[in-house]
Specification:
Layout (H helix, E strand, L loop, with lengths): L17 H15 L6 E5 L6 H14 L4 E6 L2 H13 L4 E4 L14 E5 H10 L7 E7 L7 H4 L6 E6 L17 E4 L3 H6 L5 E6 L17 H8 L2 H14 L5 E5 L2 H13 L4 E4 L5 H13 L4 E4 L14 E5 L5 H9 L10 E6 L3 H5 L8 H6 L1 H13 L11 H6 L11 H10 L6 H15 L5 H10 L1 H14 L5 H22 L16
Helix pairs in contact: 1-2, 2-3, 16-17, 17-20, 18-20, 19-20
Amino acid sequence: MITTSNFHEPRTVKELYPYQVKAIDAILAGLGQLERGENLLYQLPTGGGKTVIFSEIAARFIREGKGKVLILTHRVELLHQTSRSLQSIAVPTKIIDRKVHDIEDQERYACFVAMVETLNNRLNENEDYLGDIGLVIVDEAHYNAFRKIFQYFRDVTILGVTATPLSSNKNLPLYENYRRLIIGESIADLISMGYLASPTTYTYDVNLQSLKIGIDGDFTISSLDSLYSLYHMQDKLLQAYEERASGTKTLIFNSGIATSRRVFEMFKIKGYPVKHLDSTFSDQERRDTLAWFKETPDAILSSVSILTTGFDEPTVETIMLNRATRSLTLYHQMIGRGSRVLPNKDRFSIIDLGLNAQRLGLWEAPIDWQDVFANPRKFLEQTLYAKEDAGLDNDYLITDDVKARFPLGRDLFQFTIRDHYLDCVRTGQRPSRALDRSVVNHVELIRANAATFVEALSLQQVLQSEIQWRLKQYTSCIAKSTENFFRWLMEDYNDKLRRALNQAYTDQPMYPPDSVSQED
């Protein structure tokens, strides 16, 4: 049990807003309804003050003698931001970063703030590294990296906080770790109450056909850099700035370092006050760059992903998205950097050069986060992937030579794997079940037109283009389209189909006679 002899009554430097008080009461009530070891998730838009809210919750938890509090972050910027927030309300806090190993004076501290990777390493070495933890708070809880820590706190309540309760890994939904979700004020409500600036979005038409999708479901950095480094895209960025953002403090988000440096050079040649910032900068270089950006009127800062979290510069007036993304979380994080209000700032501009608003909706548009939390796959299918895959053909075009080999059962060609994939998602089945259904469909088609197993294998070869078409639909649905994965999928599908046909023709040999060696 923690004593409060070294824990002063919290002194709130910044008075809590009414909606923050409401949120704290709701979260504490929700935590009180959980059994020990059950977890709670809280959602509040970027700019709403999540750090202030969970710092106050930590203070009250400690003050009531319920145990110590551990707060986890995934970025060093958030680590220090959280520590400052706790210190401002007099919570004795110990930062655990890579420099900290053994903590011999744990009794001095009521709260620990740790980087997830660092703490995971310490706990791997010693599961009892921290003692008397009664509450774990996870900042930016949508990141999958935090899951590795949960095994060490199975009997401790975990409070996750995030602006977007949508897991960074669609195969590991948040509802697997959090029992329920509490929703905070919406972006639209915070704007109407004057706590967030009101946005105006300008969308510029761009051709994104060259972009490729990586295994994480987002566009690959290499394909984004290849596109956005082109002269005509650089020219479009400059045109958009001069039309909509000239004379405003502007933060530009790029996909990669190469693009960001080219953007910097372009604006520098044009005589604009501009700097570039990326993850390769030293801590001092980063501080100097951000200080320049803060103090310089009408400054332009070209960056990559380093400023999506843990960065707060209220004077930003324009956000330029010089990239495309399929990540709703990243989209909200980037735009949120311009949403802070000031006495002389209640509006900001969003310049979208990646069709992101078309793909993901306007930043301030309402989202049913409870439904997203409970049915993340359905949400992705109905919003993001359905729009991305709208160009897919709905029917396979049967060529004349294929028609000649399949005179019977041609209605079986009407099988659309995407429809079956969506059905699996809606009914809670594994998405790969759609492929199993496709194999069954192909077996039925071949059985209708082949009398023997040998003929069946011949027809399987005729169907290779059709199989390839179906698998392209499937990989588009699951947003996984690397060449190696597709090659493996083709081999695996054909192997399953061959085995299924063998079972269907149980009275036929496994292979045609001419495939058997002379030794046999």
